[in-house]
Design brief:
This protein is α/β, with parallel strands linked by helices and about 375 residues long. About 30% of the residues lie in helices and about 25% in strands. The protein has 8 helices and 17 strands. It has a 5-stranded mixed beta sheet with strand order 10-17-16-12-13, with no helix packed on it. Strands 1-2-5-8 form a 4-stranded parallel beta sheet, covered by helices on one side. Strand 12 and strand 13 form a beta hairpin. Helix 1 (about 10-35) packs across helix 2. The two termini are about 45 Å apart.
Length: about 375
């Protein structure tokens, strides 16, 4: 069953709403199970599949809102377990890169508007990074945001983030003393894509302009440091070759869901012998400039790989795309097309697989 929530509000409020929804659905399922399966070995329980910040909602419901006994499994997909540096940039009023000239004035006004908007959203404050995500320009020592405040980020917002994480940690410790966790945890993440993992503060006194973020391994949105679910006391991580947005796609989830439903341990990677996934630029690309797309899959040339592209709405005009292998199970193509929305499709046999993505090309 889908569960939608207002991502702008506190994750704690969404967790309570999730609990209410789960209670209603479990009552209904138990009534139906009792009628059709009177000799069932146990009562129905839920499997929570949560993408992005939905994982914060799911774990908070289980540990802080009395949901532990209602769940069989928690699966998180690209969840920022310990926050995002992007949230700090947003609250600091420096989410959009600025520069000199008219474009700089536009960026400054946009940053001001974004900051004013974000200051009223509890969810953004709760996403402030609480891992070592702050570094001073020219230095190597990394600190947490409580040790080295970020210019423009209100102390009240930092307090909200600390309170949110502290309540969750205390609940986990309290629940652990009462016995083993009654549900399994599997966390899907990636370390294959450059991802912001640290803010760089100015070295001189009085400076407030942040330098470019330091990049590290991650899924393009959540760095490895924040993806780690150390609250489980185990190692629930399943590292994949997918971007954050792709983690919720059928190829990314399929193997894990099959294993969970069969009561088997999921594998270390979701690509498997059948997976095939295209990776596209997240943002629109400029016409007249080449851009790169990647293809992930096992033994693709021997599986009759076919790749095509066409302008959206003109599938009859499809043309082949040439991918070249650059690492084991990884292929890359460089494209340059005219403005519009373009579709790329990859197909293989033995076993059959397919993925299709689109990219927007804009005139500059």
């Amino acid at each position: 069953m889908p569960f939608g929530y207002d991502w702008r509000l506190s994750h704690r409020l969404a967790a309570r709403q999730l609990g209410e929804r789960v209670a209603r659905e479990l009552d209904r399922w138990r009534a139906e199970a009792g009628a059709h399966y009177p000799d069932r070995p146990d009562d129905p329980r839920v499997i929570l599949v949560c993408h992005g910040t939905g994982g914060l909602v799911g774990r908070h419901y289980l540990e802080c809102e009395g949901g532990r006994e209602t769940a069989r499994t928690l699966i998180t997909l690209g969840t920022p377990q310990q926050g995002l540096v992007q949230a700090a940039r947003l609250l600091a009023g420096q989410a959009v890169p600025d520069g000199a000239g008219p474009d700089g004035d536009v960026a400054a006004r946009l940053n001001e508007a974004l900051r004013a908007w974000a200051l009223g959203l509890p969810a953004i404050a709760e996403l402030l990074p609480l891992f070592r995500a702050v570094r001073v320009e020219g230095g190597t020592r990394e600190r947490v945001i409580t040790q080295r405040p970020v210019p423009g980020v209100p102390g009240e917002a930092v307090g909200q983030a600390l309170a949110f994480q502290e309540r969750f940690r205390l609940a986990c410790d309290r629940n652990a003393r009462s016995g083993p966790r009654p549900y399994a945890v599997h966390c899907l993440g990636s370390v294959d894509f450059p991802t912001p993992e640290a803010l760089v503060l100015p070295a001189g006194p009085g400076g407030e302009h942040l330098a470019d973020d330091l990049l590290g391994p991650g899924d393009g949105t959540v760095p490895r440091r924040s993806a780690l679910a150390d609250w489980t006391g185990t190692d629930p991580m399943l590292w994949t070759g997918f971007r954050n947005a792709d983690l919720a796609s059928a190829p990314a989830l399929r193997d894990t869901m099959r294993a969970v439903r069969r009561g088997l341990p999921p594998g270390e990677t979701l690509a498997g012998p059948e997976g095939i996934v295209l990776h596209f630029p997240r943002d629109p690309v400029a016409a007249g400039r080449p851009f790169v797309i990647d293809l992930l899959g096992h033994d693709l040339p021997q599986r009759d790989l076919r790749t095509f592209m066409w302008r959206s709405g003109r599938v009859r005009e499809k043309q082949p795309v040439v991918f070249r292998q650059y690492e084991p199970d990884r292929y890359r193509a460089e494209l340059e097309v005219t403005p519009g929305r373009w579709v790329v499709e990859a197909l293989v046999d033995r076993p059959k697989g397919r993925d299709r993505k689109d990219v927007t090309v804009v005139a500059v």
